């Protein structure tokens, strides 16, 4: 199915470069008005409906214009959260209107079916060609596709970003990756920025990947990504993320006000200077205008005029189907340069790419895993990061799985990779640390990066980890609210600082909402052994625990929780599919950006071999979605604490915190420093168990 979508979108992009756009003459509005009195139209928005300040609102502006200028009446609807009722909504609109417009390519299949069943109703779909490319014609004589040269408009805002950037670093946030549409925005933006400054640094990140389209309606996640990009030095970020883009402008305001140095966001689809809240308006540098409003208006006008044309109509710079905004006056000093680029594109002197060039790299990176990628947990998350970094950098990567700790196997595998020309070695378990330190001395020209642990040499041996205690604390809030017995079980691998720190953060979260609850630890002495993990979980359940948490790599604890009818906080990844009734939430990893960074630094000679400890603001750690039956008050509390952790106003290890024996671990008003957290070997009050 994915290959089919990619083929359709790729062909759409190719045809979109050659198809001629249709135009309209506003002078005809008065003569069309009387005809419009007999025309009604139905508009079905993409998920989120009116109010997204972007894609849907642009479509709404188009149909409002048709009402005002053509005299039509209209009805509108929005799909449910998962879009499963698209076909039903299209049919309801077709029952009452001679033309139905669907906002978004996800309607294409349903629109084709409903159009076939309603031959007397015309349909127009935004962002899909509605073409049968095999037959070389429209999918149906009553189905039109309205597409755009988004890459051309994105080129201009990319040029604007490069011209206005003071840091030489800019960012791009895409809503959903890897289905061929949003990559057009990124490709044009990148080309425009590099046309101005070939050496500019561009940080791209997508919120979700196909087929998960939640990234178009995730402002909180967009804000987190934007904050991380600004923290990396970006001073301008362009989003192509629909309603999620609101989070970008909130981040721009927050960073500008806290740092005293102004940063910007670039909007998309509509002129977002005019649609965002007034409090963030001054941070909207410009917007890439995708004239969905024009396309909607002209489709309805064609119905009024009797000139409806099936198949694809493409809109680009030449017919103002795409462009950029100047509202706010922030581009006044560079408009002449942008208009020159625009003229060159229209004249064909600049051909804007609609796809990202495949990256290339001289780096060969080998990953040594402590478990199998099929564990659905720790190693799975690392392997997803490896694959993502390989795609992002063009580097060649390889891996070996289930490499035991504390043996000669790690060094033997690493040396074998080095003999094959691999110049970056990444080890993903605590027990590899000493072997990697020794190898780094033996092979000074090879980059060694160790995940977890604490050692580095400041040159070619570095340490990478994430502040997992942040989402651990949040997951504790959820667990503390879910227990009725006040007994929570925790299945844990080894008593090392990383694991103890996580147990403590989790317990602090639990007791912030349930002060008398306890967390009992059951050590397994293994990272991955489903049978042992399952037995440990069952023992805790038998002892009265009605919530099970874990620092393990498999789903075995969840299996036991599901069977026993108790709740479960998983780890490493969103494991909800494995125990859907038990699952509450999970602290999760996303290694893509960090592994991309390591490979890029290895390739350009900037790897410094230090200690990198990423956070929720960096995106390396996060909290999975919370189960639907958890109360709204708890979800709001988690969101509030998450935002406070990211902006630095709250730290899970701020006192007063007592140790397990009742002594003061962190004094009131003090915050534990990184050194103390990295060496943590003492449980906090509320934990049952021993650290030895």
Features:
692 residues; alpha/beta; 6-stranded parallel β-sheet; 6-stranded mixed β-sheet; 21 helices; globular; disordered N terminus
Provide a descriptive summary of the structure in words.
By secondary structure, the chain is an alpha/beta fold. It is globular and about 80 Å long. Residues 1-34 have low confidence and may be disordered.
Question: Could you give a short description of this structure?
Answer:
With 692 residues, the chain is α/β, with parallel strands linked by helices.
So how many helices? 21
Indicate the percent of residues in helices: 25-40%
**Strand count:** 30
Q: Main sheet: which strands, in order across?
A: 2-1-3-4-7-13
Low-confidence stretches: 1-34
| Computed Rg | 27 Å
Global outline: globular
Largest sheet: 6 strands, parallel
Taking the alpha carbons of the first and last residues, their distance comes to: 51 Å
Structural class: alpha/beta
Beta-sheet strand percentage? 15-25%
Fold topology:
Elements (H helix, E strand, L loop, with lengths): L1 H17 L10 H8 L3 E5 L10 H16 L2 E5 L8 H9 L4 E4 L5 H10 L4 E5 L4 E2 L4 E2 L4 E6 L1 H15 L4 E9 L4 H15 L4 E9 L9 H13 L4 E5 L5 H14 L4 E6 L14 E7 L1 H14 L5 E5 L6 E3 L10 H13 L16 E5 L9 H16 L2 E5 L8 H11 L4 E4 L5 H10 L4 E5 L9 E6 L2 H14 L4 E6 L4 H17 L4 E6 L6 H13 L4 E5 L4 H9 L2 E3 L13 E3 L1 E3 L2 H13 L6 E4 L6 E3 L8 H16 L9 E2 L5 E3 L7 H5 L8 E2 L4
Parallel strand pairs: 1-2, 1-3, 3-4, 4-7, 7-13, 8-9, 8-10, 10-11, 11-12, 15-16, 15-17, 17-18, 18-19, 19-26, 20-21, 20-22, 21-30, 22-23, 23-24
Antiparallel strand pairs: 5-6, 12-14, 25-27, 28-29
Helix pairs in contact: 3-10, 4-5, 6-7, 6-11, 8-9, 12-19, 15-16, 15-20, 17-18
